[in-house]
Specification:
It comes from Archangium minus. This protein has 13 helices and no strands. It has about 250 residues and is mostly helical.
């Protein structure tokens, strides 16, 4: 199997002309909000006056639903292009040792990028990071919290990073953007998707969610651009990291 099919140089000329990846860049952001709106509508129909705020607690469920749709979209797109999801995920077992060594180096940089900007921005906007966390982590019914604890970390590795860095970023380059510009656009939209997970109409919360992961997104995107075979390993790490987010919701729901 030729994993190089997903690189810009191998995109056919006809495909390049059609490939500006708006769907890849905005679909997850819109789906998060759309699924939350459906849940809010259900609460409203049941008579709850705080339907939208109540729906925000269900962000792990909206994330799982979005992940499933994203995986289905990626599968459909690769199938139409005559390739497989395996090729998109850059699965390549020929250089495992070098990939793992490179992964360790990337994680040394990426790990603090996933935490420090989050805490610093929350402190700047709210005065106390705990206040931001309390708006984000809300209790769910036990069955929903358990389902999210299992399904959220299982589905997000196959949907999030591949959408932005295996699909959108190469298409941006093929469309004509330079490497740095393509990375910056893909990373911005990757970070920005969190503004609707959950969507709360609070300027501080929106700003926090919009930018908190931007340094991490740039780091991960640069790593995939530098060494595409790191993608499946980063997908695994991503899933493990998101266990902690699902666990916070589970713990709050007990």
């Amino acid at each position: 199997m030729d994993i190089a099919l997903s690189t810009p140089a191998r995109l056919p000329a006809l495909e390049r002309g059609r490939s500006f990846p708006w769907v890849s860049l905005v679909s997850r952001t819109l789906l998060f909000a759309a699924f939350q709106a459906v849940i809010a509508a259900g609460f409203a129909l049941s008579g709850r006056e705080d339907a939208w705020r109540a729906s925000a607690a269900w962000w792990p469920v909206t994330a799982v639903l979005t992940n499933i749709v994203s995986i289905a979209r990626l599968w459909s797109q690769t199938w139409c292009e005559g390739r497989s999801l395996r090729s998109l995920y850059q699965v390549d077992g020929r250089h495992v040792g070098m990939d793992l060594l490179a992964l360790l180096g990337v994680l040394v940089v990426a790990a603090p990028m996933a935490q420090l900007p989050n805490i610093a921005l929350a402190t700047l906007l709210f005065g106390d990071p705990q206040r931001a966390l309390e708006m984000f982590v809300l209790p769910l019914p036990t069955w929903a919290a358990v389902a999210a604890l299992v399904l959220f970390p299982l589905t997000i590795p196959f949907s999030e990073l591949p959408t932005y860095y295996a699909d959108a970023m190469p298409r941006l380059e093929a469309w004509g953007l330079g490497r740095i510009q393509a990375l910056a656009v893909a990373a911005f939209f990757h970070s920005a998707q969190h503004a609707t997970l959950p969507l709360l109409f609070d300027a501080r919360f929106l700003s926090w969610r919009l930018f908190m992961f931007l340094p991490f997104a740039l780091t991960v995107g640069a790593a995939v651009r530098w060494r595409p075979s790191l993608l499946p390993w980063l997908m695994v790490v991503h899933g493990l990291l998101d266990v902690s987010a699902a666990w916070l919701v589970f713990a709050a729901s007990r």
